[in-house]
Amino acid sequence: MSQQQTPAPEQPPVRRGPGRPRHADTEARAYRAVLELFGQKGWSGLSLDGVATHAGIGKSSIYLRWKDKRDLLMDALHDLEEHLVVPEETDDVAIRDYLIAHAVARAELYMGEHGRALTHLYSAAQANPDEFDDIRQRRISRGLLALRDRIEQACQRGELPSQTPVDHLLDAIEGAVLVHVLFPSPKTAEELRAGIQDYVSTLVDVQLRGVGAAA
């Protein structure tokens, strides 16, 4: 006669130790938080402790990755640049169409989720030149670098006069878009967005006539 086995006693539930759980998206959450706080409070109101609290991340996780608020903000801006939609450059796209596509993309960026952070960046870079020197040298985003290259190619191809002042043309378009978004005539956000294509098209046409581009 077989002997009946005694069932094993149930194991007590495993209790987890105290502490904040790890998050696989720590960097993404920190980037979003630092851009939101920078947009709300500016450079002087930004701190690593504040980012940790806003993101719901342990302070140790923040301080292990970034030595100060500048490093974190720079990383967040570089990450944002990597996700920018830069108008595709192809040989069959005229310089006018490329400039319009670029300017519309820039306007949408300024009107988007992190637009306030980007616009604060200009004043912060002016007030704190040493901390923001690398961003100043890179002209804020890779989109502007791509645009500069495209304008220079247009000069070489004969789409624009060979003596076109590239910096002046670039600054005129970029600056006008920024001012238009920051200081619009009394309009709702929906009206501003709806009219941006017409505004940019007229802006680009005016600038191209100014440098003597062929119609």
What does this structure look like?
- With 215 residues, this protein is mostly helical.
- The protein folds into two domains: 26-80, Arc Repressor Mutant, subunit A, CATH 1.10.10; 85-210, Tetracycline Repressor, domain 2 (Orthogonal Bundle).
- The chain has ten helices and no strands.
- The protein has helices at residues 26-41, 48-55, 59-65, 69-82, 95-111, 115-127, 133-137, 142-157, 166-182, 189-210.
- Helix 1 (26-41) packs across helix 6, helix 2 packs across helix 3 and helix 5 runs antiparallel to helix 10.
- It is elongated and about 60 Å long.
- 20% of the residues are buried.
Write the layout of secondary structure elements.
Elements: H1 26-41, H2 48-55, H3 59-65, H4 69-82, H5 95-111, H6 115-127, H7 133-137, H8 142-157, H9 166-182, H10 189-210
Notable features of this structure?
215 residues, Tetracycline Repressor, domain 2, mainly alpha, Arc Repressor Mutant, subunit A, 2 domains, transcription cis-regulatory region binding, transcription regulation, DNA-binding transcription factor activity, 10 helices
Q: Based on Cα principal axes, name the global outline.
A: elongated
CATH class of the largest domain: Mainly Alpha
- CATH fold title of the largest domain: Tetracycline Repressor, domain 2
Measured distance between first and last alpha carbons? 104 Å
What structural class should be given to the helix and strand makeup? mainly alpha
* Tally of individual helices: 10
> What order do the SSEs take from the amino end to the carboxyl end, as H and E?
HHHHHHHHHH
What is the total number of structural domains? 2
Q: Biggest β-sheet, characterized? A: none
Overall pLDDT metric: 83
